[in-house]
Specification:
Shape: globular
Distance between the termini: 27 Å
Strand content: 5-15%
Strand order of the largest sheet: 4-3-5-6
Radius of gyration: 22 Å
Helix content: 25-40%
Length: about 230
């Protein structure tokens, strides 16, 4: 069987070692599934993309933004800002003024609050909801008994491709994705041609914090996540 990349199973920190700046990472003892070993040519080619016009400065500022999310204190390195503030800082660094929000209808209140925050910070903000167009779910083959609100109700489909194409047609500096469902977000990301980031993802159970389930996966409440398939 062809070797598959498995960074999640790596026993070491070969890609981010604790060494001095004038030293080089040593991959001699890295596992055979290490993508740095398996795809050296691909990495070399892709790194060159960071020098392209329109990419190089975005890349540099993204790293600067990462740095500014930490502070050195007598007690060690600490984090200091939430993602909302990080997004605002990154937009300002890049000179982004026209921001566009693609959000889920289930997070309309959050979208309204976030828009108000951005506008108070001086950004021009417009937004597109996932139900744009009010296209009935029957158009994509959904059966009456597959509607969330019941067979007799009109139910608009989530329409992430239209969300993306509307934003592609507008003058946009930066797109922010807020709470689209699994799969719908995949389609939006596939079709969106503008620089974008994700503020939050959909998780109906954990207050849109899907990592909470991982943090609790050893508890009796979420232990089912770690059981083998079929158990």
């Amino acid at each position: 069987m062809e070797e598959q990349v498995q960074c999640a199973k790596c026993p070491g920190t070969y890609c981010y070692p604790t060494i001095d700046a004038d030293q080089k990472p040593d991959f001699e003892k890295a596992p055979s599934f290490c993508p740095t070993k398996l795809y050296e040519d691909v990495i070399g080619q892709s790194v060159r993309q960071y020098y392209r016009k329109g990419v190089s400065e975005l890349t540099r500022l993204a790293s600067v933004q990462e740095f500014e999310c930490y502070e050195h204190t007598p007690d060690g390195i600490k984090t200091k800002i939430p993602r909302i503030e990080e997004t605002i800082q990154f937009a300002r660094k890049n000179g982004f003024h026209k921001l566009r929000l693609a959000f889920c209808s289930g997070l309309a209140d959050e979208a309204r609050i976030f828009t108000e925050i951005l506008e108070r910070r001086g950004f021009e903000v417009a937004s597109v909801c996932c139900k744009v167009g009010a296209v009935p779910k029957e158009r994509i083959g959904i059966k009456p008994d597959e509607k969330i609100s019941g067979p007799g109700s009109y139910e608009s489909m989530c329409n992430p491709i239209s969300q993306a194409e509307i934003l592609n047609a507008e003058r946009v500096d930066f797109v922010i994705l807020l709470g689209l469902c699994v799969g719908h977000d995949s389609l939006f990301i596939r079709y969106c041609q503008k620089p974008m980031t994700v503020l939050a993802v959909k998780d109906r159970v954990t207050g849109h914090n899907p990592l909470a389930a991982l943090y609790l996966s050893r508890s009796i409440y979420y232990g089912r996540l770690r059981r083998l398939a079929g158990d």
